[in-house]
Amino acid sequence: MQRINVAIIGWGNVGRGCKRAIEECKDIALVGVVRRPASLLKNREELKNTTVVSDITELDKVDVALLCVPSREVPEKMKLYQKMGICTVDSYDEHQNIAALKKVADLDAKAHNVVSMIGCGWDPGTDSVVRALMKIVAITGQTTTTFGGEKGGRSMGHTVAVKAIDGVKDAVALTLANGRGKQKRRVYVELADGAKAEVVEKAIKKDPYFLDAPTEVLFVKDINKYNTLHHEGEVERTAMEVHQLYNVSGENPEFTGNVMVSCVRACMTAKARGEFGAYTLVERPLVDCLAGVTVEDKLEGY
Amino acid sequence: MQRINVAIIGWGNVGRGCKRAIEECKDIALVGVVRRPASLLKNREELKNTTVVSDITELDKVDVALLCVPSREVPEKMKLYQKMGICTVDSYDEHQNIAALKKVADLDAKAHNVVSMIGCGWDPGTDSVVRALMKIVAITGQTTTTFGGEKGGRSMGHTVAVKAIDGVKDAVALTLANGRGKQKRRVYVELADGAKAEVVEKAIKKDPYFLDAPTEVLFVKDINKYNTLHHEGEVERTAMEVHQLYNVSGENPEFTGNVMVSCVRACMTAKARGEFGAYTLVERPLVDCLAGVTVEDKLEGY
Questions:
Q1: Which of A128, A246, A287 has the CB atom closest to B282's CB atom?
Q2: Residue B82's domain spans which residues?
Q3: Domain check: are A175 and A284 in the same one?
Q4: Are B8 and B106 part of one and the same domain?
Q5: What's this model's pTM, rounded to 2 decimal places?
């Protein structure tokens, strides 16, 4: 079997999740991790059998680049790899910018005969598929999504945003339900030596990621005590006589990595059909994300 | 706007549900209901503004036929309409036969330049999409689907099967959870005059629909007291360290009709692209089932 060659761009939680996900896929091979400078990742136990380079051109042929960088860096990185004829997958999470990103990315993808899967994480991503499903099962209605439940779930995007703030040594950002369609955030922060709590708290609350919901910042000595794998979300659609609910929950540390790696297959299927362009998860057949070749494989469990 | 012309084939709960769903779609027009003989539906209040015919050739141009007949009649009806150059949508629910049905239907659809959407109801249908999603979010694992919950939900397929049994005046079949991945059935039956309870009960329990789960048959005087709109299902996927749960519930009488009518759009989109064939819901982009034309429409709520 010809395997799909992928590179992981960036080495944070999502990059690690992608690596573990790839290990579960016989049809996908990790060619290497790209992190500038590569020396930053030298001697990492978790990467001892993995090629780490500063630039993707140092790797053998890469079919798909998994963009495991902060969302804000995704548009630029995507453009770079598209120009090199490499497909991309990302979990870009700025909902309000996705349609605009898609328009630009679609033109670039078509210009360079590649496929880019965008916004393919948890939300946007699989939750978006659930919201599309709800428009199908309840044609008229209003949809609300409530994240986090009562005990709160880990938000990758918010955690990454906090970790990038000066004075933060480590952090976990939780999302908790705060009434229907509303959330609140709770951020646990371990301060870097000499950092001032008030300054860090202000910076977090001013970050665009935290402007949409009340945010509580708690400073702790050991972040590991507050870490969690739990995530939870509820998508609800209501109309006059209809009430429809999809509840998603789980302990699943690789959620985002699994979704991104599954989308590698969708890239290659679309490319093989000459359907170059940028797509979200609702714009490609879900079956193209799954392992398997025959009709029976594809419909297993249908 | 050019509307899509559809005909409803058969007039049971699913047919009625499709009619109500069409009324919510500005881009889809109901051309008529096909029921042989049409005289059976004469003077029905619910059909007073609807053309009812015995044969589809009596209707103006039909783009898509909604096959609202019992599952067992679907393959034959599909073949008939495909030959006439008409696309079809069904909610065929015999899981074990779907791959085989798709193979035959796909050849016929390609031969006649049409598109058939098969198995597009609740389960198979949108639950199948959820199961595909779970393979994406948790690559390795075992999936189980448990229907009905504790209070039980209405099963359309089982209700139709019971109603077709001699001596049954009216019936409601509920599915209840019976442990993880297991179900039991409860059937409320109103007997026809002169029918014998023992004979009817035996016939129900021998029906292929009821062979897979313990079935309790209760005879009642007025079926309306036991009717319910509730439905519920849980799709669970587990592996070593992963537990992933999607729970679907709601009061949504038009669930199946809404899914089928949404798939009308997917038929026309595939046909317009020359992608003739037979597809399940996981084999087409979900966005093709939604109203809207522009990128912004398509990604609304993504």
A1: A287
A2: 4-122+252-298
A3: no
A4: yes
A5: 0.90
Same domain, A12 and A92: yes
Tally of domains within chain A: 2
Q: Which residues of B touch A91 (CB under 8 A)?
A: none
Contact between B131 and A301 under an 8 Å Cβ cutoff? The reply is: yes
| Any domain includes B104 | yes
Task: State how far the alpha carbon of A88 is from the alpha carbons of A67, A83, A115, A264, B89, in Å.
Answer: 7, 11, 7, 8, 34
Asked if residue A220 lies in contact with residue A164, where contact means CB atoms within 8 angstroms, the answer is no
CA distance A201 to chain B (A): 31
* Co-location of B146 and B47 in the same domain: no
| Cα-based distances in Å from B105 to B67, B91, B279 | 14, 14, 9
Q: Which residues of A touch B100 (CB under 8 A)?
A: none
CB contact under 8 A, B295 and A261: no
CB contact under 8 A, B301 and A258: no
- Cα A288 from chain centroid (whole Å): 18
- DSSP per residue, A44-68: -GGGTTS-EESSGGGSS--SEEEE-
User: CB neighbours of A211 closer than 8 A, spacing ≥ 6?
Assistant: none
Last residue of a domain, one of B217, B239, B261: B239
Q: Is residue A133 part of a domain?
A: no
Contact flag A299-B99 (C-beta cutoff 8 Å): yes
Reading the block at residue B241, the tokens are: 């360290």
Chain A nearest-CA residue for B135: A290
pLDDT digits (tens, 9 = 90+) for B47-94: 999 999 999 999 999 999 999 999 999 999 999 999 999 999 999 999
Q: Does one domain contain both B98 and B146?
A: no
Whether residue A293 is contained in a domain is answered as: yes
* B259 with A298: Cβ contact below 8 A: no
User: Does residue B130 form part of some domain?
Assistant: no
Contact list in B for residue A250 (CB cut-off 8 A) is 137-138, 242-245
Distance, CA of B120 to CA of B125 (rounded, Å): 4
Same domain for A277 and A226: no
pLDDT by position in tens, chain A (length 302) = 789 999 999 998 899 999 999 999 999 999 999 999 999 998 899 999 999 999 999 999 999 999 999 999 999 999 999 999 999 999 999 999 999 999 999 999 999 999 999 999 999 999 999 999 999 999 999 999 999 888 888 887 899 899 999 999 999 999 999 988 899 999 999 999 999 999 999 999 999 999 999 999 999 999 999 988 888 999 999 987 789 999 999 988 889 999 999 999 999 999 999 999 999 999 999 999 999 988 888 899 99
Same-domain check for residues B175 and B35: no
* Residue where a domain stops, chosen among B215, B239, B263: B239
Taking CB atoms and an 8 Å cutoff, what residues of chain B touch A149? none
Q: What CATH number is attached to the domain comprising A279?
A: 3.40.50.720
* Set of chain A residues whose Cβ sits within 8 Å of the Cβ of B21: 139
Q: How confident is the model over A67-99, as pLDDT tens digits?
A: 999 999 999 999 999 999 999 999 999 999 999
Burial class (CB in 10 A: 0-12, 13-18, 19+), B48: exposed
What sections of A138-219 are H helices per DSSP?
156-163, 197-206
Would the CB atoms of A25 and B132 count as touching at under 8 Å?
Answer: no
Q: How far is B39 from chain A (nearest CA, A)?
A: 32
List chain A residues with CB under 8 Å of B133.
Answer: 126, 129-130, 286
Cβ within 8 Å, pair B132-A289: yes
Do B156 and B54 fall within a single domain? no
